[in-house]
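Why do we bother with holo predictions? Because pocket geometry can differ from the apo form. Keep that in mind while you read this record for zinc ion.
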Amino acid sequence: MHQDCPVCFEYLFESVNDVSVLHCGHTIHKSCLNEMREHFQYACPLCSKSVCDMSKVWEKIDLELAATPMPEPYLNKTVWILCNDCGENSHVQFHLVAQKCLNCKSYNTRQTRG
Ligand SMILES: [Zn+2]
Ligand SMILES: [Zn+2]
Ligand SMILES: [Zn+2]
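The structure, written out:
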């Protein structure tokens, strides 16, 4: 199997010990995955799914959202989001920090319609 790392584009299986398999099944260097985490990137570069069990991270974002009141003009704003993890669309209240998928509770989402 010849495969390149999606982060650094170097050959992956030089040394199997240095390779991590993500939740989605894609493979990446352990060192590259660590670097992504340091930059708070938790989505697979190939398919945008979360790279690991993110429930602890989502809990932190829950707290952050609760502590960040939305400014007046946004209070009644709602948006459609598409979840990168489960692929479901949700209609949610807009928040400046992040939008939460109603289906799987993931914040790994992107806005589709405002
Ligand atoms: Zn790499
Ligand atoms: Zn992937
Ligand atoms: Zn979801």
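The chain has two domains: 1-52, 53-114.
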